[in-house]
Design brief:
By secondary structure, the protein is mostly helical. Helices cover 81% and strands 0% of the residues. The protein is built from nine helices and no strands.
């Protein structure tokens, strides 16, 4: 199944370098196929809808320009995620202030009302947002994007043991930050 997809993607990449009509059709197909998963990744990395929409567009513009310049692209998904990752990391470095998990927990602990299930999901997403970038990225790639550790290693340049450790630490940090709320829900 994947080899059929790979073969089709190679044809689309070649078509991107063809006439305007061929290029436009190939780009549209690749965009429709990958936009949702790339957008989901960016949104989880930035936590901002408008920023994520902008970075998605920038990702595909960079992808299109790279393929038009005869850059050899053999893994479309990996190349798109590499671009999206770099843009997200740059945005976080330049624009996103960091907040400590302790600060947010103190703020949330001030509220003594019962937490509804949807509020708990919001807390989980917020906990994810507050993770250090390296843990957050590893967790998102593994659990939200379904990457294997080998794929994550190729994308990030980190070793597999390092990535496994980051995913484990991310889960541990999320569980620890949510433990008081889970206990409250159970009582």
């Amino acid at each position: 199944m994947r080899t059929d997809q790979d073969s089709h993607e190679k044809k689309l990449i070649k078509a991107l370098q063809g006439t305007h009509d061929e290029s436009e059709k190939a780009f549209t197909e690749l965009y429709q196929y990958y936009a949702h998963s790339v957008y989901s990744f960016i949104l989880r990395m930035t936590g901002k809808i408008v920023v994520s929409e902008d970075l998605l567009q920038e990702t595909f513009i960079k992808f299109y320009n790279a393929t038009r310049q005869d850059l050899l692209v053999t893994n479309v998904r990996g190349f798109l995620f590499m671009i999206a990752r770099n843009l997200s990391l740059n945005w976080r470095r330049d624009e996103h202030p960091t907040v400590s998990v302790d600060d947010i927990l103190i703020e949330i602990e001030g509220h003594h009302h019962a937490i509804e299930q949807d509020e708990l999901l919001n807390l989980i997403n917020h906990s994810l947002d507050l993770l250090e970038l390296e843990y957050r990225e590893a967790f998102i790639l593994k659990y939200y994007q379904g990457y294997s550790y080998e794929e994550m290693s190729r994308l990030t340049g980190d070793t597999i043991p390092t990535l496994k450790n980051r995913v484990w630490r991310a889960k541990e940090k999320i569980q620890n930050s949510l433990r008081p709320y889970i206990l409250e829900l159970q009582s």
